[in-house]
Amino acid sequence: MRVPRYWRNKLFRYRLVGWRCINCGAFHHFKPLVCKRCGSRGFREVELPKTGKLLAYTVVKIAPADFKDKAPYLIGLVELDDGTRILAQLTDFSQDELKDGARVEAVLRKIREDGESGIIEYGYKFRPLVG
Amino acid sequence: MRDVAIIGVGMTKFGRLEGKDLMDLLAEASLNAMKDANVENKEIDAVYVGNMLSAAINHQTAIASSLVDRISIFPAAADKVENGPASGGSAVKNGFLAVASGVYDLVLVVGGEKMTSADTDVLTDYIATMTHPTAEYVHGITLPALAAMLMRIYMQRYGVTERHIAMVAVKNHKNGMKNPYAHIHREITIEGAMQSVMISDPLRLYYTCPISDGAAAVILCPADKAEEYRDKPVKIIGVGQATDVQCVHEREDPAVLKSCRIAAEKAYKMAGITPKDIDVAEVHDAFEILELVESEDVGLFEKGKAHLAVEKGVTEIDGEMPINPSGGLKARGHPVGATGVAQIVELVWQLRGEAGERQIKKDAKRALACNFGGFGNNTVIHILEAMWK
Ligand SMILES: [Zn+2]
């Protein structure tokens, strides 16, 4: 069950490609049947900007099963430059760089190894934007 | 639609209850409520059981039928209601609708959970499965992490400090000390709370609820028949439930619990009252930041101002708007499916004046319970009124 869940969202997790509602602009990370905000059914494919700012962050110490060997890890609420918000893990942060409002950019990283299927999942994380 | 009254309440002690399984807890709470209501087993028309995790951690399904068997209320109609941490509130709502509709006259609603026999890791994982599978869970999010980020946003935006969060925890521990049913009986200090273990920065151990076992139950009947069973019946004058977008980051404002706002508006409208008419409230403080956010979003305080009320002692049991006199989820404990029912049990005791040492000072006529599921994407609100006042 987990493998198809992963592959289905590959485009989003590799390149931040998803679908925006033509009617109201709401972003969906996989192609939905209906827009979750306005209920309409027309979408266009969009690639989200790869840079944004950190709205809030925290450290996960007690992790869900598949992330147990990765804990502790950083996770953050990111607002991309076009205003779309996404959730992601953070990487390559020093203590000084870690503050709300920090500029960040998406990078491709290993996310987890699925214990049951043995698959290694890659996807975006966010690191401090340099310069 | 008929008016619906609560004629009996009961619960088990909450805590780490060695030697008692989920069915023992549900049965004990049910029988306590039936005794309180002076109701015989065979009079019960239907039972609604609020529970989230029986299949996952107790290896038992179809627990509503099993409960009927355990307490001999055949041939009562029996359903389990699962709505995450709002399972208890949803079960009460279903009981309310069943009596209001005229289909059933006497309904037992019981919520319960047996959690302490499972590993913390396993529980963290099951609870995290409430989040969006491909937009939240896949990133390794947990509920404490979502609460930590909400706390951070509140601190940036409204001038809430960690000290305010600690004050909420201290108040709830103080109330829990006076509650014989509470899981945690330990007085804490602001300084002690602020030095407790960091779980998910800036969220510390003392800003989160414990993992508990326990059950709570209520008996409902048509309001015009309530006095045939006992004195001091409590009417359910408002019920509201609402949902919101599942992903926290996709909500219009991650600092607003829109489901809470809408559920409260619906409940006030049904009751024909405003937040000013509420005398006491139990809110879902699975994390102490949520006590502030919920008490604002249900309209008891202005947005971003609840921490100022906490500073002034307004939410203490002798304050103008007591919140969580039971000790809340923080001190009473949070056996997930039991919580929504336990909130109502506490408020019935407060309205009747039977809350012992933790009895609120003011003479309360109306009370509000806010039970919150997921991370705020499904909220159930009940408003209660003392019928004899
Ligand atoms: Zn739309």
How would you characterize this protein structure?
The complex is a heterodimer of chains A (131) and B (389). Chain A is mainly beta. Chain A contains 2 helices and 8 strands; from the N terminus they run ααββββββββ. Chain A has a 5-stranded antiparallel beta sheet. Chain A is globular, with a radius of gyration of 16 Å. The radius of gyration of chain B is 19 Å and the shape is globular. In chain B, a hairpin with a 4-residue loop joins strand 10 and strand 11. Chain B is of the alpha/beta class. A 9-stranded mixed beta sheet of chain B has the order 3-2-4-7-1-8-11-10-9, sandwiched between helices. The interface between A and B is large, with 41 and 37 residues. The complex binds zinc ion (ZN). The site of zinc ion has 8 residues of chain A, from loops.
What is this structure's SSE topology?
The complex is a heterodimer of chains A (131) and B (389).
Chain A: H1 2-8, H2 10-15, E1 17-21, E2 27-28, E3 43-47, E4 51-60, E5 73-80, E6 85-90, E7 103-113, E8 120-128
Chain B: E1 4-11, H1 22-36, E2 46-50, H2 54-57, H3 63-71, E3 77-81, H4 87-100, E4 107-113, H5 120-128, H6 143-158, H7 162-177, H8 190-194, E5 198-200, E6 203-204, E7 214-222, E8 234-243, H9 258-271, E9 280-283, H10 288-297, H11 306-311, H12 328-332, H13 336-352, E10 366-373, E11 378-386
Parallel strand pairs in B: 2-3, 2-4, 9-10
Antiparallel strand pairs in B: 1-7, 1-8, 4-7, 5-6, 8-11, 10-11
Helix pairs in contact in B: 1-3, 4-13, 7-10
The complex binds zinc ion (ZN).
Zinc ion binds next to loops of chain A.
Order of helices and strands of chain B: EHEHHEHEHHHHEEEEHEHHHHEE
Order of adjacent strands in the largest pleated sheet of chain B: 3-2-4-7-1-8-11-10-9
Cα-atom Rg of chain A, whole angstroms? 16 Å
Q: What kind of sheet is the major sheet of chain B? A: 9 strands, mixed
> What best-fitting shape of chain A do the alpha-carbon axes yield?
globular
- For the record, the CATH architecture of the domain at 4-118 and 211-228 in chain B stands as 3-Layer(aba) Sandwich
Which CATH class of the domain at 4-118 and 211-228 in chain B is shown? Alpha Beta
Give the SSE order of chain A as H and E letters: HHEEEEEEEE
Main sheet characteristics of chain A: 5 strands, antiparallel
Unreliable runs of chain A, pLDDT <50, ≥5 residues? none
The beta-strand count of chain B equals: 11
Point out poorly predicted stretches of chain B: none
- The whole-number mean of residue pLDDT values of chain B reads 97
Q: How many independent structural domains of chain A?
A: 2
Per DSSP, the total helix count of chain B is 13
